Amino acid sequence: MDNHDILMTKNKILNVFDNNKDSIFNTWINLFEKNEKIQHEVGSLINIFKNILENYIDYFKNENKNQYLSSIMNVVREMDINDVSYNDFMMYIPYFQESYTSVLMKNLKIEDIEEGLILCNRVYNKTLVHIQNEYLNVKDPTLTAMLKLSELRDDVTGHHVERTKEYAVALSRALNLDEKFLKYISKASLLHDIGKIAVRDEILLKPGKLTNSEYEEIKKHTVIGARAISNVIKANEYIHDYLYMAIDIALCHHEKYDGSGYPNGLNESKIPLSARIFAIADAYDVITSERPYKKALSHEEAVRRIQLDSGKHFDPHIVNKFMRVQDKFQIINNKYKN
After folding, report:
1. Which of 25, 57, 112, 259 could covalently link to 108 via disulfide, CB atoms 3.0 to 4.6 Å apart?
2. Given this model, what pLDDT does residue 113 score?
3. Backbone angles phi, psi at 324, to 5 degrees
4. Containing H/E element for 296?
5. What's the DSSP call for residue 207?
6. 77: containing domain
7. CATH, residue 129
8. Which of 112, 138, 164 is where one domain is finished?
9. Are 278 and 192 in contact (CB under 8 A)?
């Protein structure tokens, strides 16, 4: 089947969906209501069903990946709002496949049915995968609880956690790291300063320079954070793999490439890659943000300082990649300022 044939089949599917939207939707509802095992009232699920149906139609119209993923996120939000678990959802979603299959069988020509079902089922399976991924993102109680705990102690920096996450992902992408790494670092980086929950407010929020003893105390947040995440892993039978990367980042994001950092004086490749990446993300944000003890400096100054510390504080290879995507850092920074 060549591209022209595929396009023709997609147009036929789109025409069937557009002209039979109500029929597909009502068939789905009827099948749903006949299942005596289902616990939810249909009224609480209508928006979920509608979002999925509209998602299908929009995908066949545009094949716009960003719009498609946005629609998936809306489905997951509706699941969360209506307290629909993933297991419940997986009980309901086959009725959608059954309903659109019956409509396609009635409205497509015999020679188009096989290819039409193949294309529809491909989008159906893709939808299930993305809903599962987004659901796990939304319903990650471990991450949510730890972040809320961290925010109670260190909200003075204003969006520091969100910005550094985006910087770390942008830098990881520039390094051509795989999607699994990008996914892990986008979550793991959020917990980099979780250990600050154990640092006294008078030190954490001090407007002036720290004394030697105060500095030694704040340095402990790396070890405390790594230990806290490690304890979470030990206490859970089912745990998200990104937490192992979170330990590396929490423990090692203040290590320096030349071995002069803390807590363990690691150098070069002995520092985990995720921590070497995050060190630049963190430093850029510290330089360009206002803190109790300093004013915010410019993007240009941050770039100058990071480049100057290449081979000392930072991995020179990662600094080179940073220089190529520094404009993306500035865009992220401006987005949060605005």
Report:
1. 112
2. 86
3. -75, -25
4. none
5. S
6. 3-138
7. 1.10.490
8. 138
9. yes
| Long-range CB contacts for residues 15-22, cutoff 8 Å, separation at least 24 | 16/103, 16/104, 16/107, 16/108, 16/116, 17/53, 17/56, 17/57, 17/60, 17/100, 18/57, 19/107, 20/103, 20/107, 21/53, 21/57
**Which among 138, 26, 32, 30 has a CA at the least distance from the CA of 93?**
32
CATH of the domain at 181: 1.10.3210.10
The domain tally of the chain equals 2
pLDDT tens-digit map of 61-72: 777 767 777 777
Q: Are 88 and 68 in contact (CB under 8 A)?
A: no
pTM: predicted TM-score of the whole model, two decimal places:
0.61
Q: Can you read off the two tokens belonging to residue 309?
A: 């510390």
Whether residue 36 is found in the same domain as residue 90: yes
| Angle, alpha carbons 26-31-37 (nearest 5°) | 140
Are 130 and 55 a contacting pair, CB within 8 Å?
Answer: no
Alpha helices by DSSP H, the chain: 3-19, 21-34, 46-62, 65-81, 86-107, 110-138, 141-153, 160-174, 179-188, 201-204, 212-219, 221-235, 242-252, 273-288, 299-308, 316-337
Size of the chain in residues: 338
Give the residue from 138, 169, 185 where a domain finishes: 138
